[in-house]
Structure formats: C-alpha cells, structure tokens
Amino acid sequence: MKKGFLIILLLLGITNLANSQSTKTKMYKQGGVWYIPGTINGLELDFVFDTGCHGVLISRDYFDVMRKQGTVTNDDILGTVETVDANNNITERISFNLREVIVGGWRVKNVKATTSNSSSTPLLLGQSFLSRFPNFTQTKDGYLILNNNESTTPTKPPATNTTTSTNNSTSTNNSTSTSYSWEDMTCRSQITLICNPSQSPFGINLLFSGHNLGLYCGFRSDFSEYSPGEWGLRDKEWIVYDMGGIPNGTYKDGGHDNYTVGVSLGTSINDMNALVVYSGITWDVKRIFEEYDVEYSAPYYAKSSTELSTGLNFGIILQTHNGLSYQIGYDFYPFPIKLDNMNGSFINFGIGFNWSAY
C-alpha cells in the first residue's frame, strides 16, 4: 500500500514537473520603462511591460495599420467599450481579439485587446495576456519568467541552453536543462553609412534581407576631395591656353568611385542580435590626374583618364534589436585575389539602421 502511494506521489511529481516549465526572457529598459519583444498576429514589435494594464493596449494608429494589412479583420472586432478617466471623461474604445500573441517563447491564442485614442500611446502588454499563466516574475536584472499552462503552447522545440524552473521555483537545484526560449532575432533589411577613409570616405550601403538570405548594393566616393590641386583650377584648356601649362609626365591618383553588388547570408546570435556575412563584386573607378608645370606658380592638375579595377568585396554586419547595425568590410583587388596585395587602404566600415519587414 505504501509503495502504491509513493508511486502515485512520484507520478504526480513528474506531471507537475512537466507542466511547470518556464522561460526566462531578456527585457530592455529605455526611458525608465521596461520593454519586451514579441509578436501579435505575426507582426514583430516591442511591448511595454505593464502589469497594471487590464489588457493589451494598442494605439489607434497602429490598429488602423493592422486593419489595412489584414492582420486584424472584421471578424476580430468584439465591439466598443467605454472608459472613464480621472476627470470623469468618457472615452469610447474599440475592443478586438488578437488571434495570437507570442512572448517569451509561448504562444497564447485569442487575447483581448483595446485601442487607445492617442497615437503616441505605446503598446502595453497587460493582464489579458499575463493572466493566462499560473504565475510570472520580473527579476531585478531585467528578465521576465513565464510559467506555462494548458492555454499556452511553445513556439519551438526544447532547447538545452536556457534554464527551466520547476515547481514554480527558480532554484537551480530544482531545475532541468530543458526550456523554450523567445524566438531569435531574424536578419533585417538596413541602410548603412559606409566609409573608406583612405579612398572613398562617403558612401551608402543598402541591404534587403529576407530573414536569412539577402541582396545588397553600395556606392562610395570621395567626391573629388582627394584629387590633387584646387577644385576650381582643374580645367585643362584653361591650364594650357590661359596659364601656359606644360605637362611634365607626372600622373597622380585623383580619388575613387566604388560600386558594389552582392548577396548576404545571416543568422541569429540570440534574441537581441543577428550576424550577417556578405560578399559580392566591386568595381573601383580611379580618377587619374596629369600634372602641369606653370611658370611662377605651383603645379596645376587636370583629369586625364580613369582606371577600372574589379575585385571581391567581403564583410560582416552585426545587427542589434534596437535598430543599430555595425559593419566592417574589405575590398580585394585585383581580381582574382592575391593575398600579397592586401593592405589597410581597402578596409571600409560603417554604422547603419535596420528594420524588420515581417
């Protein structure tokens, strides 16, 4: 009898262990407010974590965008509700159903949300989502711990690199190595201000990314800032006919224009960062200036020709969840690659802004 009783207790403990899995998701703080990433009806966004909010609150402008995109349909509209503020002003808001909300690796279906009449209202994650969990904990170091139940489902298979609390406790001694983590950050499209200080300091790079694969193009130039002589004194006819200039056989590098196209391959590092590797063909147009000796004056310079070089461009980009990207690349000239030609003149780097199209 005692053995049977112990077996029952053991089975109940195992059942409780299986049903008490939890996830630990990193939040970030901005302006004194805690934000947590998630998705609603497939749209990626950041919520303001607000335990005092009755439901999920969405600005009217964002609601209108969701209607236009079809992520919220007429079938999702539940009606209108009236709210009274501290000044006894009555405001009518739209109540609607979110078919799916994903936060912290858990998918919760049919979450009630309301609109705000202010376009500046952030997206608030409140009790209509949080109450679907047996309990949740916000840690001092900026993590949200969610425990699952029958109304929530994991968004991906178990991982072994995060911590799972058991028996509603965060004790290390009572935890397993299986958990569900928040969906990793996917690679994003971006625009970058790119610079090669020694040849073409001004440039722009565009990356169009579809999660992991992408296309990119770039342009860099010195806009004649590195050309010899003075900007307004480079007219060949004026140098020869008006100033009596005579070419002395000396030619100098007059700056560069660089054009690049290629492909990219990205991967998620974690829920806050993604890494993109790109490579492609680059064309460098070097301007050649001829030197003229002018009596009673310093040498003058006029554009003589251009020199085209084809090479291979390679680089990496670190994308962060807050929208900033950091990029470093290298141009290999000439093509095919010769390692003994590598030098610091072909290094380019930049800082950009990324955004999600999904």
Features:
disordered N terminus, single chain, 358 residues, 4 helices, 22 strands, 11% helix, mainly beta
Structure description:
The protein has helices at residues 2-19, 60-69, 127-130, 236-242; strands spanning 22-26, 28-30, 33-40, 43-49, 56-59, 77-84, 90-103, 106-116, 124-125, 136-138, 143-147, 152-154, 164-165, 175-176, 189-195, 202-210, 213-221, 246-268, 273-293, 300-320, 324-332, 347-355. With 358 residues, the chain is mainly beta. The chain is built from four helices and 22 strands. Strand 18 (246-268) and strand 19 (273-293) form a beta hairpin. Residues 1-20 and 156-183 have low confidence and may be disordered. The protein folds into two domains: 22-176, Acid Proteases (Cathepsin D, subunit A, domain 1); 189-355, Porin, CATH 2.40.160.20. The radius of gyration is 30 Å and the shape is elongated. The strands form four sheets. Strands 2, 3, 4, 5, 6, 7, 8, 9 and 12 form a nine-stranded mixed sheet that branches. An eight-stranded antiparallel beta barrel has the order 15-16-17-18-19-20-21-22.
